């Protein structure tokens, strides 16, 4: 597994070693031992999978309690994946980073607890799978506006951005709840 740093110190891009042969390919999409050598003390408890059409933007989501670390990958298609540091104590508070994750590049983004997460679908459809370090807790769910100019996230151009009703009600970064 190759580990690449991103512009946020605690967000990592992981590229598994892919073994190709005449049958197709094989790779370990997750290995707890290798992962814990990289990031100790992390235990994943839930796997989430979503399918979305081109232009769907899910985010920017986080849980203010039961904060979830997320290991994100794409089974089919391509997404622009984004993490925003919401830890007030962090030197990078309010900063964002991104990576294009796809079924072709097999890259995974590790986003620790304390960050908001969102993605935009660039392919006709995308199946996204992510492991989380804590359970879903709807009462602690929060969402920040994806296009808040205070964050200044540079999203790729798509014809039309499609948001859930919930994400249409999301709040500005300035009015959001943060982590300590
Ligand atoms: C997130 C989640 C949703 N649900 C349900 C609630 C709802 O009826 C339906 C769809 O939920 P949402 O609209 O919140 O799904 P979605 O907008 O895909 O939410 C997800 O977005 C990405 C970016 C994340 O990082 C995730 O943590 C999560 O917030 O699924 C669960 O049962 N368990 C879960 O863990």
TrEMBL record:
Keywords: Isomerase. Pathway: Carbohydrate biosynthesis; dTDP-L-rhamnose biosynthesis. GO terms for molecular function: dTDP-4-dehydrorhamnose 3,5-epimerase activity. Signal peptide: none annotated. It is an enzyme of class 5 (isomerase). Transmembrane segments: none annotated. Pfam families: dTDP_sugar_isom. It comes from the Bacteria. Its EC number is 5.1.3.13. It catalyses: dTDP-4-dehydro-6-deoxy-alpha-D-glucose = dTDP-4-dehydro-beta-L-rhamnose. Belongs to the dTDP-4-dehydrorhamnose 3,5-epimerase family. NCBIfam families: rmlC (TIGR01221). Homodimer. Catalyzes the epimerization of the C3' and C5'positions of dTDP-6-deoxy-D-xylo-4-hexulose, forming dTDP-6-deoxy-L-lyxo-4-hexulose. This is dTDP-4-dehydrorhamnose 3,5-epimerase.
